[in-house]
Amino acid sequence: MQNFSELAISPYLKERISSTGFSVPTPVQAAAIPPALEGKDVLATAQTGTGKTLAFLIPVIERLLQLNKPGIAALVLVPTRELAMQVLDQYNVLRGKQLAAAALVVGGLAEAQQLRAIRNGASVIVATPGRLEDYLDRNLVQFRNLQVLILDEADRMLDMGFLPAIRRIVSTLPKERQTMCFSATMEGDMARLVKDYTRNAVRVALGSTLKPAENVRLQAFEVAVSGKPELLRRLLNQESGRCLVFSRTKRGTERIAKGLMRDGIAAATIHGDRSQSQRTAALTGFQQGRYRVLVATDLASRGIHVEQIAHVINYDLPEVAENFIHRVGRTGRAGRKGVASTLFANEQRSELFQLERTLGIRMERIPVDGHLSENRERTQDPAPRKQTTYKPTMIALPGEVLQAQL
Q1: Domain count, the chain
Q2: Could you tell me if 111 and 233 lie in one domain?
Q3: Could you report the per-residue pLDDT of 260-295, keeping only the tens digit for each?
Q4: Distance CA 174, CA 151 (A)
Q5: Which of 59, 160, 339, 381 is the most buried (most CB within 10 A)?
Q6: Residue 96: pLDDT band with limits 50, 70, 90
Q7: What confidence tier does 215 reach under pLDDT thresholds 50, 70, 90?
Q8: 181, 206, 231 - which closes a domain
Q9: CA-to-CA distance for 326 and 319, rounded, in angstroms?
Q10: What is the pLDDT of residues 388-405, one digit of tens each?
Q11: Cβ atoms of residues 252 and 316 within 8 Å
Q12: Helix, strand, or coil here: 53?
């Protein structure tokens, strides 16, 4: 498939896809959509930023257009509220006027509005496992007419401890259904989950899921902890586009953002202690350009999509090597070029080397020009930093592995 116009779908959906500006499918879309339209189960692994959401929304919408039965026909399970809201938004843009709005089922938002959307005839629910399990326990939702189950960012849901909730939810679904699973990795509990819930799934494996996209330039700066704030400002001043800065801690994100705002740089924060309304306002402001910088914990390393993030800056090294891939995956999306900078102290050289070895990457070492003041107050958390051990991960991809053109 070279163009969405080649798909065997309704003229209405073709028009909706065209009206949203999509014309050429990404590799994961080209590989996953045709078998999904045939009703086959699909198991896809691909790097972040490759267009997986559209890969399952197009088949779901096409099926809904052909159905006349009331009730919930499709369930999309995702790990975070932010990702749920973005999937919901993309679905509502694509559906046009012929389908009802989807229902959002997540924690942290008003329950009444979510239940009202379900009762008003939503055919699609986009949910996080914890809140949906709560609704099932209270008999507030049922899935007797369900046709399609999508597990998006499935490995992340398992990382967050949602496996019991997922098993409970799936046990309530019709056994005769289509299941599509999208994940960055496929091993351990993830592989067992797939085996339990899919039947003769079409396997789509695109590129290496443990390496950044080739169009992202990786660079690392060795700098004293006291020099990090100044180096961060230098990097931001050299960049005209949107920048995403990652900190290991919630307190660190607040401190970094406050320092940037004191210097006149519009910045917002996202972390687990912020309310949903605060997180939504920060992300919306970042998307709309009111904030040039978003400072976040790894909560934002998956599940958010902001167009044209020019630069990702790892102010702190991640605790888990895989999180580096998801952080970096916020830039260089949809074939665009991006830059990812990592700041590390002299005593973290071995930690950085181990991360590179685990992921099979090499960051370009960039010297810090000039002399950063050694008299600035330390901005790092007072608690001692523990040394992180990154465990190598081996992934076996059955069948032909297609190289994603990212």
Answers
A1: 2
A2: no
A3: 999 999 999 998 888 878 888 898 899 888 999 999
A4: 15
A5: 59
A6: confident
A7: confident
A8: 206
A9: 12
A10: 554 443 333 333 332 222
A11: yes
A12: helix
Sequence-distant (6+) residues with CB within 8 A of 258 are none
Work out the burial of residue 128: count CB atoms within 10 Å of its CB; fewer than 13 is exposed, 13-18 middle, 19 or more buried.
Answer: buried
DSSP string of 297-357?
-GGGSSS---TTEEEEEESS--SSHHHHHHHHTTSSGGG--EEEEEEE-GGGHHHHHHHHH
Predicted confidence (pLDDT) per residue in 187-212, tens digit: 667 777 788 888 999 998 875 555 66
Q: Which tokens belong to 92?
A: 């509502």
Return the sign of the alpha-carbon dihedral for residues 309, 84, 89, 87: positive
Element (H, E) at 203: strand 202-206
**At residue 312, does pLDDT exceed 90?**
yes
111 and 85 co-located in one domain: yes
Residue at token pair 């679904």:
173
CB atoms within 10 A of CB 222: 17
Contacts of 97 (CB under 8 A, 6+ apart): none
Three-state DSSP class for residue 253:
helix
Q: 223 with 165, same domain? A: no
List the beta bridge partners of residue 289: none
Cα atoms in the Cβ-side hemisphere of radius 13 Å centred on 56: 29
> Of the residues 178, 206, 234, which one is the last residue of a structural domain?
206
The pTM score is 0.63
Residue range(s) defining the domain that contains residue 30: 4-206
Residue type, 270: I
Q: For residue 134, is pLDDT > 70?
A: yes
